[in-house]
Design brief:
319 residues, Thiol Ester Dehydrase, Chain A, 12-stranded antiparallel sheet, 6 helices
């Protein structure tokens, strides 16, 4: 078995139903990349999706600078989805994914992504995806793709009435700075534009029970291919969703006493939507207890169409 360079986990592909020693010998020889720190979102998202193909459905993915030195979960989601999409036909769009965040990732190194072709049928394709650093698994996802077909459409949730994004000026970064977390937030590069419709700015100790609503988009012009936009939706979905689970208790996610983390993420795609155009993310708290909190989110495009639904469970542990 060959030895990886510093920062490389060694990427292996699946032969049959297991990761074989022979495929693990086909390791990338270049260390995973970390993108340079730069202000603004110019071309950062496209760079994050510039995966380097290796042997056997393996890829090397770069990392972007991030607060506290940990990889952003939305980056893992987007890159894993992008890798899986490279292994299916152009006639198939992603319709669902289910993922687990297993370990924190280091932004000083990229990650190795392994895709297993679980099944290819006439209408559906299933992929299992793992992201690793230094040989340790950070993230695992099962994702399914579907050939488009005719069917009756119905949405159980309507888009709420909110001001248009042009009239909403409070950005994600600006809100966090009003909450005294500027030092912790500086230095990160997240290529997205988030604007709070109704920021959770009530005093600590006061419960916030209303749905949290955010206008969101990738902050750069993306190419006209749908796999990139599906990955963009996955990237946006991890932005503020789990933050809301502490609000009904009068707590705030940025409280320094909180030891919180995203544990898992599920997402269903109901149609195609451009991730570089404004989407409304309507977020609700479904349940909390036993140190855990579950939130749900619904993405609407500006026409009012429900384009994606997501759920995420987070750890809520107080020190």
């Amino acid at each position: 078995m060959t030895t990886s360079t510093a920062g490389s986990s060694g990427c292996g592909a699946c032969a049959g139903a297991r990761w074989t020693r022979e495929r693990r010998a086909q390791r990338p020889t270049s260390a995973p990349r970390s993108l340079s720190n730069r202000s603004g979102g110019t071309a950062v998202f496209k760079a994050l999706l510039a995966l380097e193909a290796q042997a056997g459905d393996c890829f090397v993915a770069p990392a972007a600078p991030e607060r506290a030195g940990r990889l952003y979960g939305g980056q893992l989601l987007a890159q894993a989805l992008a890798a899986a999409q490279r292994t299916v036909g152009e006639d198939r769009d992603v319709h669902s994914l289910h993922a687990y965040f297993l370990r924190p990732g280091n932004v000083d190194h990229g990650s190795d992504i392994e895709v297993e072709r679980v099944r290819d049928g006439r209408s559906f394709s299933t992929r299992s995806v793992r992201s690793l650093q230094h040989g340790k698994e950070l993230f695992r996802m099962l994702v399914s793709f579907h050939v488009s077909e005719q069917g009756d459409a119905f949405a159980g949730h309507a888009m709420p009435e909110v001001p248009p994004p042009e009239d909403v000026t409070l950005t994600y970064d600006a809100f966090r700075r009003t909450q005294g977390v500027a030092d912790d937030w500086d230095g990160g590069v997240r290529p997205m534009d988030l604007r709070y419709v109704n920021p959770p700015d009530a005093p600590p100790g006061e419960p916030v029970l209303e749905n949290q609503r955010v206008w969101a988009r990738i902050d750069e012009r993306l190419p006209d291919d749908w796999p990139t936009h599906f990955a963009g939706l996955a990237y946006l979905a991890d932005s503020t969703l789990v933050d809301s689970v502490v609000l009904p208790h009068g707590q705030r996610w940025h409280d320094p006493r909180l030891n919180g983390a995203s544990l898992d993420h599920a997402m269903w795609f109901h149609g195609r939507a451009r991730a570089d155009e404004w989407l409304l993310l309507d977020q609700s708290v479904e349940a909390t207890g036993d140190g855990l909190g579950l939130a749900a989110g619904r993405f609407f495009d500006r026409s009012g169409a429900l384009v994606a639904t997501c759920t995420q469970q987070g750890l809520i542990r107080w020190e």
